[in-house]
Amino acid sequence: MKITIVGRQMNVWDSTKEMAEKKLARLDKYFGSDASATVTFSCKRERDNVEITIHGANTIFRAEVDDISFQNAMDRCVEAIDRQIRKNKTRLEKRHKEGEFFFPDYGEVLDEDPEFVVRTKEFELFPMSVEEAIMQMNLLGHQFFVFFNDETSGISVVYTRKDGTYGLINPIIYK
Question: From the DSSP assignment, how many helices (H) and strands (E) are in the chain?
Fold first, then answer.
């Protein structure tokens, strides 16, 4: 990984640069040689601030931490990026080509974020009126129903609102 170290309104000591390179070496196991990292050191509100931005495999990872020392801030930043990578491991593997990310076997697995778990379902769409779609939705016991609207000749969605009434979504496609 190519590392660029920047000091905002300050000079970064060689020992601090070496410490940053050593800490970032922990993340080399995830990225190929084409990845680049920028580490920015600054002092904000009388606290040491470290910001790490890593560009690798068309994805950007970023963490920024204020602490009492650059070493503590650097540790927390690297941990935050490591946590981001592990948390999004499955999505990153699906999104990127083989070999762009390297995930060693941890033994420890972070829980997947449940809002990103997707169940795929395919079904045939038949032309129907809004009233028929509402009836079909109620027969299935669902909160919404996707159908081919015979009035608009397009895909529409009917749904049950919190107040017990029904809503209709007709998409508009811009080109």
Answer: 4, 8
